[in-house]
Amino acid sequence: MYTLGKGGENMRKILRRLRMNEEGIGTVEIILILVVLIGLVIIFKSQLTGLVNSIFSKIVSQSNGI
Fold first, then answer.
1. Continuous segment of H or E residues that includes residue 58
2. CA count, 13 A, side-chain hemisphere, 11
3. SS3 at position 6
4. Do the Cβ atoms of 21 and 9 come closer than 8 Å?
5. Which residues contact 48 (CB under 8 A, 6 or more apart)?
6. Is the confidence at residue 66, as pLDDT, over 90?
């Protein structure tokens, strides 16, 4: 464990290390991921629309046979 030295030096080091070691996903990372995903959707919009329409038409035609 950590011990408190003279004047709490070790505690200061621990707190400084905790501030510098930020784990997890930050707001900037989430925004960047969203921007990339939106960009991919915009680029492949026609292919995605065609794929979804094809899938739904198959579902409708197969459900009519039931």
1. helix 45-64
2. 6
3. helix
4. no
5. 41
6. no
How far is residue 20's CA from residue 12's CA, in Å, rounded to a whole number? 12
4-62 pLDDT tens trace: 555 566 777 776 776 666 666 678 888 999 999 999 999 999 999 999 999 999 999 99
Question: Are 10 and 3 a contacting pair, CB within 8 Å?
Answer: yes
Greater pLDDT, 2 or 53: 53
Q: Where are the alpha helices (DSSP H) in 8-44?
A: 9-20, 27-43
CA dihedral 7, 12, 14, 20 (to 10 degrees): -170
Cβ distance 10 to 2 under 8 Å? Answer: yes
Q: For residues 18 and 27, give the distance between their C-alpha atoms in angstroms, rounded to a whole number.
A: 19
